[in-house]
């Protein structure tokens, strides 16, 4: 079974794919969807298309994404929220259950401390997955999100201890909505 982890961004959206059929998660793929358009609507369309392509290629069974965190810049926070919403809608339209994890929860699951910096997350992701090199920061964050979900699936984390939220409505889609 594969998990697709997403680190949303309006310019760069990181992704990470892990195979969790064994007790130890195995690296499958990671990288970044880099948007090229100046117009936000076009960037969101590129994010949707990129995630749709990842789902078509890898056929993940579950989808994990970072929760929105508050930023000092309201405009940046709004754009991040829109990119995140686009990713969630893409996953939902493909029938994937969506799980959400907070930044501190992800850092805690991967590094052992909720206050870890990006370099620590990158290092630990590479070490946990046995990677030859260090993944790019956004890809490492997405792999960390997928690892957090893998831990949650195995019961290594509890909602009460980290305050996370997981939506388990498999196959929920707006297409099934009846007014």
Structural overview:
With 179 residues, the protein is an alpha/beta fold. It is built from six helices and six strands, in the order βββαβαβααααβ. Strands 3-2-1-4-5-6 form a six-stranded mixed beta sheet, sandwiched between helices.
Descriptive labels:
single chain, 179 residues, alpha/beta, six-stranded mixed sheet, 6 strands
**What Rg is obtained from the alpha carbons, in whole angstroms?**
15 Å
Q: Spans with pLDDT under 50 lasting ≥5 residues? A: 158-179
Helix content class: 40-55%
Overall average pLDDT: 88
Structural class designation: alpha/beta
Shape: globular
Number of helices: 6
SSE string, helix = H, strand = E?
EEEHEHEHHHHE
Largest sheet, described in full? 6 strands, mixed
- Distance between the ends: 34 Å
Compute the number of strand runs.
Answer: 6
Strand content: 15-25%
- Strand arrangement within the widest β-sheet reads 3-2-1-4-5-6
Question: What does this entry show, briefly?
Answer:
The chain is α/β, with parallel strands linked by helices and 179 residues long.
Q: Topology of this structure?
A:
Blueprint: E1 2-7, E2 12-19, E3 26-34, H1 40-58, E4 62-66, H2 74-93, E5 98-101, H3 103-111, H4 118-129, H5 137-153, H6 159-162, E6 165-166
Helix pairs in contact: 1-2, 3-5, 4-5
């Amino acid at each position: 079974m594969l998990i697709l982890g997403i680190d949303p961004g309006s310019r760069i959206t990181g992704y990470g794919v892990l195979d969790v059929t064994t007790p130890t998660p195995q690296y499958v793929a990671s990288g970044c969807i880099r948007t090229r358009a100046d117009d936000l609507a076009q960037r969101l369309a590129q994010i949707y298309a990129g995630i749709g392509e990842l789902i078509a290629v890898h056929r993940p069974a579950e989808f994990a994404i970072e929760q929105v965190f508050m930023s000092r810049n309201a405009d940046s926070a709004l754009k991040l929220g829109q990119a995140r919403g686009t990713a969630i809608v893409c996953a939902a339209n493909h029938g994937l259950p969506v799980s959400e994890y907070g930044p501190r929860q992800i850092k805690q699951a991967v590094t052992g401390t909720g206050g870890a910096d990006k370099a620590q997350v990158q290092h630990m992701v590479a070490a946990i997955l046995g990677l030859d090199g260090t993944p790019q920061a956004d890809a490492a964050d997405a792999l960390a999100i997928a690892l957090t979900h893998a831990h949650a699936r195995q019961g290594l984390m509890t909602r009460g201890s980290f305050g996370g939220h997981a939506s388990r409505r498999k196959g929920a889609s707006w297409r099934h909505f009846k007014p």
